[in-house]
Amino acid sequence: MSIAALAQETGIAKDTLRVWERRYGFPQPVRNVRGQRMYPAQQVVRLRHVRRLLDQGLRPGQVLTLSAEDLARAVERQPPSGEPEPAVIELLKRHDDNALRQELRARLLRDGLRQFVTRAAPAMLAAVGNGWARGEVEVFEEHHFSTQLDTLLREAMMQLPAANSGPRVLLTTLPGEPHTLGLLLTLALLRLEGAACIWLGAQTPESQIVAGASAFRAQVVALSFSEYVDPGAVRRGVSQLRLRLPPDIELWCGGRSAARLKRPPAGVAIFSDLDQLAQRLQGRPAAKAD
């Protein structure tokens, strides 16, 4: 399959796959009769194992250099995740769209938006992701769950009052990071904390982040990095952006790959979870009046 098909099948961005290939020699393409670079289908299984170990907190350099056999053994040695989400997985596998939507809404009503965003949603995402890594959940099922969760969060945020007096926070991802669900959870929490949020979505060019921060008079730029982004790329990207942003605009980063940075670049704040983010936001000055 092509690298685009491999990225679609595994949920790992093409740029990340290319970085892994250059740095670790995997995934490894072969040439077809036309000389085109193609990836054997069996590499999907190996990438499933890689993704599961990354979800458990291991670094790419620890797992991508393992042989296929050692990688499979490492997955078997991982402790059970203890995911208490059998109902969600069952509904997802039954392809019962209405029942899944009702279950997610019931959990949101039971927990409230804050608890749902900081506890329930991450637990469900981990359960579905690990189910995919074990081969129990199909890619289309994982995408369907993510879409349902995305829709639910957006509907819930529509019910929140407008926040025009809190700190202005611009949210996006850098090019090469297409995943936005973690960023959407961040958006929901920031809205609950009274922040005035500007949502740019995924893969905004660096120059446009700087332009957007200036146009919206943002006090903070918040970026999200999933576990599939190489930490080296995270460091380079945020370092370059930090140099281009005015010094009075804070740069906040979250997500698994950001959390793997042992020494974040100067002037960059790293958050390992949403609770830390909420604590940082409290006490920040409000946005200046237009």
From TrEMBL:
<keyword id="KW-0804">Transcription</keyword>
<dbReference type="Pfam" id="PF13411">
    <property type="entry name" value="MerR_1"/>
</dbReference>
<dbReference type="InterPro" id="IPR036594">
    <property type="entry name" value="Meth_synthase_dom"/>
</dbReference>
<dbReference type="InterPro" id="IPR009061">
    <property type="entry name" value="DNA-bd_dom_put_sf"/>
</dbReference>
<keyword id="KW-0805">Transcription regulation</keyword>
<dbReference type="InterPro" id="IPR047057">
    <property type="entry name" value="MerR_fam"/>
</dbReference>
<keyword id="KW-0678">Repressor</keyword>
<dbReference type="InterPro" id="IPR006158">
    <property type="entry name" value="Cobalamin-bd"/>
</dbReference>
<keyword id="KW-0238">DNA-binding</keyword>
<dbReference type="GO" id="GO:0031419">
    <property type="term" value="F:cobalamin binding"/>
</dbReference>
<feature type="domain" description="B12-binding">
    <location>
        <begin position="166"/>
        <end position="290"/>
    </location>
</feature>
<dbReference type="GO" id="GO:0003677">
    <property type="term" value="F:DNA binding"/>
</dbReference>
<dbReference type="InterPro" id="IPR036724">
    <property type="entry name" value="Cobalamin-bd_sf"/>
</dbReference>
<dbReference type="InterPro" id="IPR000551">
    <property type="entry name" value="MerR-type_HTH_dom"/>
</dbReference>
<protein>
    <recommendedName>
        <fullName>HTH merR-type domain-containing protein</fullName>
    </recommendedName>
</protein>
<feature type="domain" description="HTH merR-type">
    <location>
        <begin position="1"/>
        <end position="58"/>
    </location>
</feature>
<dbReference type="GO" id="GO:0046872">
    <property type="term" value="F:metal ion binding"/>
</dbReference>
<dbReference type="GO" id="GO:0003700">
    <property type="term" value="F:DNA-binding transcription factor activity"/>
</dbReference>
